[in-house]
Amino acid sequence: MKHSIFFLLIALFAFACGGGEQSASGSESTSTPEAKTETPAEASTEAAAPASTGEVVEIVLTGNDQMQYDQVYLKVKAGSKVKLTLKHVGSMAKTVMGHNFVLLKKGTNMATFAQDAVAAKDNDYIPEGSDAVIASSKMLGGGEETTIEFDAPEKGTYDYLCSFPGHYGVMKGKFVVE
In the 8-state DSSP scheme, what is residue 23? Predict the structure, then answer.
């Protein structure tokens, strides 16, 4: 009897570990994106992966009242047109918990940029004349959204952040161009 229970537990464990479909990236996939649950560290944009040069890649990124983006990795193909929609899914005002999206050029020191951004309140916390920004959105308050469009930069990994004072420490991610 003990051996039967042992083998049953092994079979259940094997089924649980290998029961889902595997995608090319090795992560489990389902037929509907809504059924997939991801932590912010695992999250990536589903629509961006199959894009090719010249195609428009649509990305939806959300920020909340807990100073969190819902995705930490965004992936696009080099040469793609990016249409990024930022949604502030919280309820707090822009003056208290504002969020934006700022894509920085390679080599930009994020802490230095964020420090300079503090003095740029009237420009949505984007330092005027900064040559460190590839693309940025306006600052949003709870319930607001905005869409920006830009060309994906050359292949590589870029930093993105929210430049509202104090947010860059936790509201940041990687923009991967393949």
Answer: -
Reported confidence tier of residue 53, pLDDT bands at 50, 70, 90: low
For residue 137, what are the domain limits? 39-177
Q: Which long-range contacts (CB under 8 A, 24 or more apart) does 114-121 make?
A: 114/161, 114/163, 114/165, 114/168, 117/163, 117/165, 117/168, 118/165, 120/163
CATH of the domain at 49: 2.60.40.420
Q: Which residues pair with 151 in a beta bridge?
A: 81
Q: What DSSP line would sit under 127-178, residue for residue?
A: -TT-SSEEEE---B-TT-EEEEEEE--SSEEEEEE--STTTTTTSEEEEEE-
On whether residue 13 sits in a domain, the answer given is no
Q: Are 117 and 97 in contact (CB under 8 A)?
A: no
From CA 9, how far away is CA 167, in angstroms rounded? 46
Eight-class DSSP state of 55: P
0.85 exceeded by pTM = no
CA distance 134 to 103: 5
